[in-house]
Amino acid sequence: ATVDEDRNAACIQAIEDYNGVILLNSSGFQGSANLCIVEQNETAFISTQGQSEEFMSRGGDRLISLSPTLEESLRWLAADLADRGQLDGKTIGVAAPDTPGQYEAVEAGLVDTLNSKGIDVAVFDVIGCAGGTFCLEGVVESVQRMRSAGIDVFFNVLNVVSTPTYILEMDTQGFAPGDVQFYASDFNAHAGELVSSKVVAFGGEAAGNLYNGALIIDDADTGAYRLEDYEPRPFNEMCNDTYGANNPSGANHENADRMDGSGSSAYGMVTTVCNIMRTALRAIYAAGDNPTRADIYEALANLGPIDSNEMLPFTIRPGKTQAPNAIHTLRFEYPCTLPSPFGAENICIVPIDDYRAAPGR
Fold first, then answer.
1. Is residue 129 part of a domain?
2. Which of 52, 114, 135, 147 measures 20 to 30 Å from 236, CA to CA?
3. Run of H or E including 304
């Protein structure tokens, strides 16, 4: 069975065998199984995963995401940089995967937004993935076009295993550190250190040096705990204290655990799951005594402000059930100059400015 088939089977099991009213997920549950839940079976689903705007629309306010939509993530990236003049006079390159839905999101969210701001994309290539995750078809030729065009800005939208290959080919063809400013959002999870670390893990020192200084525009507060003035957020502390006092394993996670350099954050995961659970339980509470499914789903879509990991400004309402409302800029560092680099790859991502309203919010 394919991954998508397995996910659809999980959808059916959760709804038919367990009679799920609100399904919850804290990892990358993607693909048509989302529609199996929210459209075909008209059941609510709360997920950390960014969804396409098509899926959000078809979900009828039953699909709740703790991330921006795929198109929104790219639209915010393009609009924010353009509005602040960061792309003036730049020669821009984009290489998008042909993964179904991703090329379309890159074109609509990133390229079309740049064009609408009067910014030309010098090279917009499609990289073939042969129906899988390794997008290698046309990489050499694409980098040649980037080199010939003299790009000095590159938007990284490739996936976790394809990005290192592309950047390493850039190094092979003569791009040197400082020649290109890389930009990304959390499209394909580049705002997270687990994914971004693979630039070095799979591409080596050369790829890491070239990607060093990449700027990421997103709502995530990745690596903020490394900053000198960081104080653990009360919501995060409450969630972890409650978990520590009540879980049967005796596990107890502290903010300081994130500084051990292992690349693991049980503290952060507890907070994310706490965020998801509180959102679901608030909807059930707000629906009143003996609620129907329809009562619960109406209450869920009308919760307004909700809790979030790191206490970011999250809201949901009918027609806008993706929660984030603010963005800031983060920087990828290799080698990491701050405490507690991520894993053996010695990278880190840290915020470099304050939050601002996302474009259109």
1. yes
2. 52
3. strand 304-306
Q: What is the pLDDT of residues 296-342, one digit of tens each?
A: 999 999 999 999 999 999 999 999 999 999 999 999 999 999 988 99
DSSP conformation letters of 107-166? IIIIIHHHHHTT---SEEEEEB-TTSS---BTHHHHHHHHHHHT-SEEEE-S-TTTHHHH
Which structural domain, as residue segments, surrounds residue 25? 3-69+268-316
In this structure, the answer to whether residues 206 and 293 fall within a common structural domain is: no
Token couple for 272: 């994310």
Q: pLDDT tens, 235-249?
A: 999 999 999 999 999
pLDDT digits (tens, 9 = 90+) for 11-70: 999 999 999 999 999 877 778 899 999 999 999 999 998 899 999 999 999 999 999 999
Can you read off the two tokens belonging to residue 73? Answer: 């993530």
- Return d(Cα 193, Cα 348) in angstroms, integer: 7
DSSP class of residue 16 equals I
- Residues 109, 159: one domain? yes
Q: How far apart are CA 8 and CA 136, in angstroms?
A: 28
Length of the chain measured in residues: 361
